[in-house]
Specification:
This protein is α/β, with parallel strands linked by helices. The chain has helices spanning 18-29, 42-54, 69-82, 107-134, 156-176, 194-200, 206-215, 224-235, and strands at residues 9-13, 33-38, 59-63, 86-91, 138-143, 181-188, 246-249. A seven-stranded parallel sheet has the order 3-2-1-4-5-6-7, sandwiched between helices.
Length: 255
């Protein structure tokens, strides 16, 4: 699949998360060099670097505070200075979320969720867009949630910021397409990885989880690799005429 990508590097924000790690590995399997961010787990970052290098690509990890524009820009500029070009950008980060009814969410929790998700995604876009333009174009993908299409109960702290990120990436698609830049989103449903896995394996709600599984048309929960393959496709030249779209990878959850 290397012929589906230009020479250079893919930048992944949130590379050590359950879905982010799978995305990094899928990109490396496609022959791409990968530079990823992590927040607080250097052991997981070192392990991922080793796994990526074992696939025959160059790998770089950076401890980045995504809510800090200077931290994000410093990492992105460092990556750009060490590679031929940045041609792919993935936002796969996100904070731990309070699963609460709206009437129980505090203003502080609401502000924190938006700062750690929406503002973090904007900082990544802001830092990487100049490099994509300088390199003659490229592609961006944000991992959001299938819940943006249906108002969820006790999950508004996921759906609301991801809806804002979806609109941000659609705006990039509209405004930056003339520079050869595409921007799309992948919207996971119930995925047995990362934050989704924490929910699905929570003690005491087994019957509730089984009800969720049975309600899905495909009768199974997704895997991180399902999301990763969709991300790789949207970044590749095989999706060269796809921009401003959101691809639901949800087992039919939105039906």
């Amino acid at each position: 699949m290397a012929e589906d990508f230009a020479k250079g590097v893919a930048v992944v924000a949130g590379g050590t998360g359950g879905i982010g790690r799978s995305i990094c590995l899928a990109l490396a399997s496609a022959g791409l060099d990968v530079a990823f961010t992590y927040r607080s787990n250097p052991d997981a970052a070192d392990s991922l670097v080793e796994s990526l290098q074992a696939l025959g690509v160059k790998a770089m990890a950076g401890r980045v505070e995504l809510t800090d524009p200077d931290s994000v820009k410093g990492f992105v500029d460092e990556v750009a200075g060490k590679t031929e070009r940045i041609h792919s950008v993935v936002y796969a980060a996100g904070p731990h979320l309070p699963m609460k009814f709206i009437n129980a969410i505090t203003p502080q929790e609401w502000r924190s969720v938006f700062d750690n998700d929406v503002n973090a995604a904007f900082n990544l876009v802001w830092a990487t867009l100049p490099h994509l333009k300088q390199g003659g174009g490229g592609a961006m993908v944000a991992v959001i949630t299938a819940a943006v299409e249906k108002v969820p109960s006790r999950d508004i702290c996921s759906a609301a910021p991801k809806a804002a990120i979806e609109m941000l990436f659609r705006g990039v698609a509209l405004e930056e397409g003339r520079f050869g830049i595409r921007a799309n989103c992948v919207a996971p449903g119930f995925i047995n990885a990362g934050l989704g896995q924490e929910l699905l394996t929570r003690p005491g709600i087994e019957s509730f989880v089984e009800g969720l599984r049975k309600a899905l048309p495909l009768k199974r929960f997704g895997e991180a690799s399902d999301i990763a393959e969709a991300v790789v496709f949207l970044l590749s030249d095989r999706a060269r005429y796809v921009t401003g779209q959101s691809l639901a990878v949800d087992g039919g959850l939105q039906l």
